[in-house]
Amino acid sequence: MKKSFVLFAVLLALVFGVNKNVFAQNEPVLYFCEKYGNSGEVGVSDRFTTGYLTVMVKCDYELDLEDVSIQFDQYNPRTKKFEYYKKFSYVIERDMKYVFFEKNDESDMKFEDPGIYRVFLLDDRDKTVCSSLIEIID
């Protein structure tokens, strides 16, 4: 019994010793701010009041995407499930590593109702590129 424990400990040390970089989230990262302006991101958080927000996506490599969507799913506490809320389409450059999505002529990226939302960046086949959670309060 003692030999198997030592062998297991050695194997764990080898596995975790080889990879020194352990990350909580892989790239790309999706997050939120109040707005994006000349001075960059303003008011980065994961908790906001109702209204317009900017969705940010940052990556160490080119996203290699062109037609994308931002989708909001709202948490329904009665069913304990996320339900589709809104979806917005955008066109970006394939070589982008850092992009912001905000209100434009075709979309009003607005959180109208308080709640917990799951927000996705989707590719042109509706596959998830990255996602994040946000809380909207009154």
List the helices and strands and how they pair.
Elements: H1 2-18, E1 29-33, E2 35-37, E3 40-42, E4 47-49, E5 51-52, E6 54-58, E7 67-76, E8 81-91, E9 98-101, E10 110-111, E11 115-122, E12 128-137
Parallel strand pairs: 4-12
Antiparallel strand pairs: 1-6, 2-3, 5-10, 6-9, 7-8, 7-11, 11-12
Task: List its traits.
single chain; about 140 residues; mainly beta; five-stranded mixed β-sheet; three-stranded antiparallel β-sheet; globular
User: Total helix count?
Assistant: 1
| Structure classification | mainly beta
pLDDT averaged residue by residue:
85
> Which stretches are low in confidence, meaning pLDDT under 50 for 5 or more residues running?
none
Rg calculated over all Cα atoms:
19 Å
Strand order of the largest sheet: 4-12-11-7-8
Distance between the amino and carboxyl termini? 58 Å
Describe this structure in words.
- By secondary structure, the chain is mainly beta.
- It is 12% helix and 48% strand.
- The chain has one helix at residues 2-18; strands at 29-33, 35-37, 40-42, 47-49, 51-52, 54-58, 67-76, 81-91, 98-101, 110-111, 115-122, 128-137.
- The strands form four sheets. A five-stranded mixed sheet has the order 4-12-11-7-8, with no helix packed on it. The chain has a three-stranded antiparallel sheet with strand order 1-6-9, with no helix packed on it.
- A hairpin with a 4-residue loop joins β7 and β8 (81-91).
- The chain is globular.
Structure in a nutshell:
The chain is mainly beta.
